[in-house]
TrEMBL record:
Residues 2-209, 310-501 form the ABC transporter domain. Transmembrane segments: none annotated. GO terms for molecular function: ATP binding; ATP hydrolysis activity. This is ABC-F type ribosomal protection protein. The keyword NADP does not apply. Residues 222-294 form a coiled coil. It comes from the Bacteria. Keywords: ATP-binding, Coiled coil, Nucleotide-binding. InterPro entries: AAA+_ATPase (IPR003593), ABC_tran_Xtn (IPR032781), ABC_transporter-like_ATP-bd (IPR003439), ABC_transporter-like_CS (IPR017871), ABCF_ATPase (IPR051309), P-loop_NTPase (IPR027417). The keyword Kinase does not apply.
Amino acid sequence: MIEIKNLTFSYAENNIFEDINCRIDNSWHLALVGRNGRGKTTLLKLLQNTFEYSGQISTENNFVYFPQNVTDKENLLYYILHELADFEDWKLNRELNLLNFPQDGLWRPFNSLSGGEQTKALLAILFLDDNNFPLIDEPTNHLDKESRELVARYLMKKRQGYIVVSHDRSFLDEVSDHVIAIEKNQLVTYQGNFTTYETEKKLRDEFEFAKNEKLKKEIHRLKETAREKAAWSNKMENTKNRKVRGFDSEKKRVDKGAIGTQAARLMQKSKNAERRANKDLEEKEKLLKNLEYINVLGINYKQSRKDKVISFNEVTVAFEEGKPLFAPVSFEITSGQITAIIGPNGIGKSQLLNKIYREAKNKNVKISQVRQIYEDNSGYIKDWAYKQNIDYQMLLNNLKKLGMERNVFNQKIENMSMGQQKKIELARSLSTPAELYIWDEPLNYLDVFNHEQIEELILQINPTMIVVEHDKFFIDKIANRIIELKREDMGEENEKKTRRIN
């Protein structure tokens, strides 16, 4: 077992974990989930004793972390892997074969490999020693749909346990039999895969929401009672002072001592009632649960007056004058249609998006993008928004709804985390007036709560959109048309270029 007792950890005055307790079985295929910035990677680092903390983590496991730190990226992969772990070559070849890793890849420089190939190589050495307990942080980055499915099958065949962090829900469903969710500053354990967790959490949240609403009504009533008791108490105090000063209401001289004693009793009774009301109010407020709320995002969508926004006939792309990257496809984008472009890594999906962007721009279509690379977003948010000519208030509202902490707003964009920079790019696109949205891998670096927000927005507004994304769950949910890109040399299989989703 991995046993966590009374663990508390703070970073830069932010309380990440507070007095958490948890037990993890070594055999679990465990998914670790939670909102961006809640401490998923931090928890993995704490298990490795990287940071100081208060409390106790008890385990006899030797943890190994993915992704490993590769220092000399120009070195050949074979030598890099031997620097990172001790293993026999035949065992490495066995693992690489299971991951469909190219045979010549071991003798190529690490930085010449694709992101997916680097991921597969580092995953292979992670499982070469059965005595290690793997901590796998975001293995799906840079992997296309087919590679994600392959890595998922690879992980599920492993007999040993592991902890995996990923924002791909379909991937988590395949690789997990238990889930630990970071909810506020606590850990909650669920038995089952990610879908089980989502279902149970939804039911629990609905129950807690209903209980919260009942408590809020009760708290409102108690506040009214407390105010009435306080007003009564003040009235008794004033009555005592007035009577003791001389006369009753009938203008007769009275016994000051008797009146004072009677008024004091009434005043004490009113004070006691006020204290009881405030105590009841305090206890009720303690019962309120600090629940996660998924806020609906805003979008500055302007529906096109044309039913057919743009069309292409037998289009393909190539690098300079080289061979086409994919077999030609024909399609048209109609108003209110959400089109997904799918295909393996390197087939030219982003290049096709760029071609669509240029053509739409030439036809004076108002476009808004989410780009894969957005290093030109820089400076303070307010100044940057002004230069982008976008609604600053709408931008801020969307950033808050996406879970951006207020203290981040005072940082320069280039100094933010990758997740925060992605939220800036997404919020910019949502705030830009557009007839057509062109999104290239919008879910990268965003947590599953953000995924749900984006899905809900798209399904509610139904904007005209073209999207490239490797998250199968997302595509299945939002797309009503799919364009599948295939290699030029696949022959007759390319005759069916697109398909519709009923």
